Amino acid sequence: MIARICFSQPLPRAASAMALLALGMALNGCANMSDSMSLAFADPAKYDLYDCKQLETERKSLATRAKDLQALMAKAETGAAGTVVAELAYRNDYVAVRGQTKLAEEAWQRNKCHDTAPTAATTGAPPVAPAPPANARGTRPPMRSGGAVY
Fold first, then answer.
1. Would you say 102 and 42 are in contact if contact means Cβ atoms under 8 Å apart?
2. pLDDT (tens digit, 9 = 90+) per residue, 68-103?
3. Do 122 and 62 form a contact (C-beta atoms < 8 A)?
4. What is the 3-state secondary structure (H, E, C) of 82-111?
5. By C-alpha distance, which of 27, 25, 104, 122 is closest to 66?
């Protein structure tokens, strides 16, 4: 009786290993398929009436969103079963953003738009503090004889 139990266990283990292998291959196939079908999640006419300024803003926001989703997917992949979690939670959004980015780029090229030169406000440079008055050298103003200055 004990011998039958020992010999019967490898079969379910092998079957479960084969099922996990098939599941992994199926998920890999779905991931590769979704990359090629990125336009299925995007509206092809969305950017037809956008001008260059609107397209520039949209392109920047899409690039930021794609970068954020990639970071979330990379973070999810560090955990247990992370690849599955990343695929289920973030892949559809990432594919949709990629499709929108491709359509925005096509509209950008079709409209013959050019990037605007970055200004100091958009580059993230800290604002320059105004120069202090000539008589100010880090000292407090003189006190009045009538009382404290509030």
1. yes
2. 999 988 888 888 888 888 888 888 889 999 999 999
3. no
4. HHHHHHHHHHHHHHHHHHHHHHHHHHHHHC
5. 104
